[in-house]
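input
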Amino acid sequence: MEHLVIATNNKNKKRELEELLKDLKIEVLTLSDLDMHLPHVIEDGRTFRQNAVKKAITFSRYIKEMILADDSGLVVDALGGKPGVRSSRFAHTKATDGENNSKLLALMKHVPAKERQANFVCVLAIAKNGTLLGVSKGECSGTIGFEAKGENGFGYDPVFTPNGYNLTFAQLKPSFKNRISHRGQALRKARSIIEKYIE
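output
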């Protein structure tokens, strides 16, 4: 069976990608599943694309399997685009999801409901042997709530309500969230690239 290595140690992302790729004959692995020493990639890009491409190409020079690197985050209009590429490190370098959400809600405390628009953005880069095979992007528009709600998902899911719905990402069933989420959109676009190289 072919392998697809996700350039992350995040088990939640692995679970999402396994669900989205379950009909392909491919095993999804994370970096922590590999018994090898790998370099630390500094995500110093100014865009999600720059970070995703850098991670994919770098790890593909060390790992023989196809690499899928994701850079994603929340872009909040009222905060001038923050947290953006620093979404996972918004509160501090090793912030938990709870700490990031608390900081976001504190900064948004006095922002009225009509001005709480935000976008979830995901860019996926696929590489092998140091060569970029393709890039895809997905976006989901919504609003930031006044409190965290829901137990599903991860990251900013408890504070983000997608447009057209009354539930946060963390309140939606994972299978349904994957149909409308930024990562789900990006991965569906990337499927043709993945399928081409696993044949």
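quick obs: The mean pLDDT is 92.
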